[in-house]
Inverse folding.
């Protein structure tokens, strides 16, 4: 089996892998931004919203999401549902 044949056979899984990586990375970045720039400054007068490092933070969250997605798809095959993925991501 060549690499191109492998990609065609697993095209649906590759698309799911890419989509879950991008959505989870972007979601973590948005949640972190809301917390650090909106919630945290209202709790303390000393803390101000800051916007430096947004790009490197987004890249870091995409890398983290890639690792999480890989580990989940590699080792957790009992269920293929989105709720199962959320359960693993949030509670485990």
């Amino acid at each position: 089996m060549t690499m191109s044949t492998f990609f065609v056979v697993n095209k649906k899984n590759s698309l799911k892998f890419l989509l879950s990586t991008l959505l989870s990375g972007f979601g973590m970045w948005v949640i972190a931004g809301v917390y650090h720039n909106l919630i945290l400054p209202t709790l303390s007068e000393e803390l101000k919203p800051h916007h430096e490092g947004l790009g490197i933070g987004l890249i870091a969250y995409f890398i983290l999401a890639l690792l999480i997605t890989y580990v989940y798809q590699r080792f957790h095959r009992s269920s293929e549902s989105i709720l199962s993925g959320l359960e693993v991501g949030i509670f485990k």
